[in-house]
């Protein structure tokens, strides 16, 4: 029998490992149960959702501006890092003071429970994943911390009175607190106890990995939505949107229609809702004569199905930015749906809600007076991709997405701006937000080095309510020169433009501005994105040699 000096840091290190693998097991177990109970009950996702909802608007803005479409990934990695640090610290502390070690984890579990319960449409059953996960994770934690403490303490102080090598000495300290600070010598078999601890920790890690894998399998098998989307025939449209006009594409390398896979994505959903079309219902209610419950069949068979080519723009698009896309949408007119419901004359807004509880406020007039505003279910000839709102979303030309383009829409409430507000309204955005005229230079890129001679300057402009009637370019603050305009199928899309510039050596600044179909010239005045969209002329600086 040897007596070895062991130092607290070693116990703390084992405790930290115990905390990490137990937390992993907790989360993985919860994911498996959540795959069975329902996606909204995954505590990790629920906490993520809560963080998004509680974040000050400046932080959300910063996240979208800085990380773009990676904002959600960054959020999850961030939460993961925080959890890992807390779990490791909890484990390390617990090797000395078990009661103190579990304080923060217990608080976190309670916070997660609150986050789950406060999620959209949550019920008590949704606590099951967290509950089961916590039981499993806590059991692993208690056992592992026990083992971690053993290898570094005097034998008589082991919590359960036995030694890892099974020689069964009597313990004096059931909760370990009496022997705090007595990290002096271990009992006889430090190697064996270390091996036992590492084996147990490794086993726990393996169990967590197995659970995570199981969660994936269960999640995919339970994915009726993918089967639903794959098996869904799109009903034919009563009209045909003309092919992209031959003269529409005048910018090298830019397609007039955006492929679904390239279409920008902006939403607050941490996991993309995946629901089957055959169980989908859109409820129409509020200030109406008749409430409607629109199932997939009712939606696609009661109303005229139409195709519309519409450019959608995000309010978060900075001057010169790329948060805009153009697609052929298939669906039914919202005007028809609202006529069927019969709208009260005192109403002035439709509050649309998604399956995950996000809302948009759309002026009623933009829907009932429009031949283009739609409840869409097709995008460029396919059912909507899950990321873009499967099975049903709204699309309204001329209004920014956050006030009109509700994805995964389940509820349309006819109401008044005075009575209701949507998700972004209390977060510093305008309740009503028509798309502002914008134009951008796509070629040449900023800071390009170009040879002297003819240089093609080209890009895209939009006012997807009225359409664009003119685009002008100027060089170094000189006179505005008209650009050549690409053709458009109608007023609801963006428009490409191009200008041939006789470039002379030196550094030059190119600017662009557009004019809408009402003759209104795009303003030079710079405006921030909040509250209702950026303005200002886009410019690039190039060097001609
Ligand atoms: N359910 C839901 N729908 C939503 C959003 C959202 O956060 N949740 N974001 C809106 C915003 S801000 C925009 S710009 C458009 C973007 O649609 P896309 O992701 O299909 O391009 O969706 C709108 N619909
Ligand atoms: Mo947006």
Automatic annotation (TrEMBL):
Task: Please provide the record's keywords in A-Z order.
Answer: Membrane, Transmembrane, Transmembrane helix
Q: Where is the Oxidoreductase molybdopterin-binding domain?
A: 270-420
Q: What InterPro entries does this protein map onto?
A: Ig_E-set, OxRdtase_Mopterin-bd_dom, OxRdtase_Mopterin-bd_sf
Q: Gene3D superfamilies from the xrefs?
A: 2.60.40.650, Oxidoreductase, molybdopterin-binding domain (3.90.420.10)
Q: Does the keyword Transmembrane helix apply?
A: yes
Q: Where is this region: Disordered?
A: 153-187
- Compositional bias segments (type: Polar residues): 153-165
Please give the start and end residues of each transmembrane region.
73-93, 100-121, 127-148, 196-215
Highest taxon listed in the record's lineage:
Bacteria
Q: Which Pfam families match?
A: Oxidored_molyb
The UniProt entry, under PANTHER family, shows: SULFITE OXIDASE, MITOCHONDRIAL (PTHR19372:SF7), SULFITE REDUCTASE (PTHR19372)
Could you tell me what this protein is called?
Molybdopterin-dependent oxidoreductase
């Amino acid at each position: 029998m040897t007596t070895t000096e062991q130092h607290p840091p070693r116990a703390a290190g084992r405790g930290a490992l115990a905390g990490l693998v137990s937390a992993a097991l907790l989360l993985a177990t919860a994911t498996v149960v959540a795959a069975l109970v329902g996606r909204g009950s995954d505590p990790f996702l629920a906490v993520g959702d809560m963080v998004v909802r509680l974040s000050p608007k400046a932080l959300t803005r910063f996240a979208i501006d800085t990380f773009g479409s990676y904002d959600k990934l960054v959020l999850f990695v961030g939460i993961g890092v925080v959890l890992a640090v807390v779990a490791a610290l909890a484990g390390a502390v617990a090797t000395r003071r078990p009661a103190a070690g579990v304080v923060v984890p217990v608080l976190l579990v309670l916070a997660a429970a609150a986050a789950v319960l406060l999620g959209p449409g949550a019920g008590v059953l949704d606590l099951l994943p967290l509950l089961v996960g916590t039981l499993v994770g806590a059991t692993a934690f208690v056992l592992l911390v026990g083992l971690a403490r053993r290898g570094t303490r005097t034998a008589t102080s082991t919590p359960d009175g036995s030694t890892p090598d099974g020689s069964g000495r009597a313990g004096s300290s059931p909760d370990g607190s009496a022997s705090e600070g007595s990290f002096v010598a271990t009992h006889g078999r430090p190697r064996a106890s270390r091996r036992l601890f590492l084996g147990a920790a490794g086993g726990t890690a393996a169990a967590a990995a197995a659970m995570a894998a199981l969660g994936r399998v269960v999640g995919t098998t339970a994915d009726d939505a993918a089967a639903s989307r794959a098996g869904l025939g799109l009903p034919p449209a009563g009209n045909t949107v003309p092919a992209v006009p031959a003269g529409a594409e005048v910018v090298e390398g830019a397609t007039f229609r955006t492929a679904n896979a390239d279409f920008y994505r902006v939403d607050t959903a941490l996991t993309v809702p995946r629901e089957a079309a055959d169980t989908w219902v859109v409820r129409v209610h509020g200030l109406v004569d008749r409430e409607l419950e629109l199932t997939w069949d009712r939606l696609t068979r009661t109303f005229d199905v139409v195709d519309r080519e519409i450019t959608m723009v995000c309010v978060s698009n900075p001057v010169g930015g790329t948060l805009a896309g153009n697609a052929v949408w298939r669906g039914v007119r919202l005007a028809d749906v609202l006529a069927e419901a019969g709208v009260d004359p005192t109403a002035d807004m439709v509050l649309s809600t998604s399956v995950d509880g996000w809302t948009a406020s759309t002026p009623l007039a933009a829907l009932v007076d429009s031949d283009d505003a739609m409840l869409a279910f097709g995008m460029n000839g396919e059912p909507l991709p899950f990321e873009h709102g499967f099975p049903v979303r709204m699309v309204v030309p001329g209004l920014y997405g956050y006030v009109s383009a509700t994805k995964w829409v389940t509820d349309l409430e006819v109401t008044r701006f005075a009575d209701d507000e949507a998700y972004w309204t209390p977060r510093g955005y305008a309740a009503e937000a028509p798309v502002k005229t914008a134009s951008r230079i796509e070629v040449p890129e900023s800071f390009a080095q170009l040879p002297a001679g003819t240089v093609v300057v080209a890009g895209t402009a939009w006012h997807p309510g009225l359409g664009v009637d003119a685009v002008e370019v100027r060089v170094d603050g000189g006179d505005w020169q008209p650009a050549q305009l690409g053709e458009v199928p109608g007023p609801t899309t963006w428009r490409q433009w191009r200008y041939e510039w006789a470039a002379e050596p030196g550094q030059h600044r190119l600017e662009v501005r557009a004019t809408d179909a009402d003759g209104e010239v795009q303003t030079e005045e710079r405006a921030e994105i909040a509250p209702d969209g950026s303005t200002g002329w886009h410019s690039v600086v190039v060097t001609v040699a």
